[in-house]
Amino acid sequence: MSLYKQVLTICILLYATSCTEDKKAPDGQNAYFDIRGFFTTEADRLNRQNPQILKEVNHNGKTEKKTLQITDWKQELDLFISSDINKPAWKKSYAIEKNGNVTTYTALDTTLKVRKIRLERNGKKISAFEISSRVNNEIYTSAETLNYYPDSLYTIEKEQNVKGLGNNTYKIEGKIKP
């Protein structure tokens, strides 16, 4: 199995084990920035544009590069989409700090998977996202950092330790070609 397929399989398995039902707040209003909506819209836009991507996957120090076109951007950006913090139970779970064009959401409860979200705006347009997540349970520990720069670059960095399987680190970088 190629390095790319191994890392993709690990991502899918970890995502599947961390899924929870996702609902909007009962009043229809989001308490925080609508990450799910933003990345779903981005996925739809990128599906229409169909750009070429220079994708680099590094798993435990082994690197593989490919130029390709993503056929399903919702799947490609799924870790970003699933980092949405607008669940009714979490309505008061994040501190919001605004400093100029940067808004930061920080988890008040260390048991929440998504620990920090930092978004930067250029006027009304989002210019950068950084999402930090952490999971610590009896099966595995995982730390993940997601970065997204519209029309330019996205990265997924992950360190994990699965009991009985050991440590894994990987980084996925996708450069969107103009």
Q: Could you characterize the architecture of this molecule?
A:
The chain is of the alpha+beta class and 178 residues long. It has one domain. The protein is built from four helices and nine strands. It has helices at 3-17, 35-49, 73-76, 78-81; strands at residues 52-59, 62-69, 94-99, 102-107, 114-122, 125-136, 140-149, 153-162, 166-176. Strand 1 and strand 2 (62-69) form a beta hairpin. The model is unreliable at 7-27 (pLDDT under 50).
Got a strand count?
A: 9
Helix content: 10-25%
Principal-axis shape equals globular
Q: Name the assembly state.
A: single chain
Give the N-to-C terminal Cα separation: 31 Å
Trace the largest sheet across and list its strands. Answer: 2-1-9-8-7-6-5-4-3
Tally of discrete structural domains: 1
Strand content: 35-45%
Structural class: alpha+beta
Major sheet details: 9 strands, antiparallel
Work out the helix count: 4
Question: Which residues form runs of ≥5 with pLDDT under 50?
Answer: 7-27
Mean pLDDT: 86
Radius of gyration (CA) equals: 16 Å
Q: List the helices and strands in order.
A: HHEEHHEEEEEEE
Summarize the structure.
21% of the residues lie in helices and 45% in strands. The chain is an alpha+beta fold.
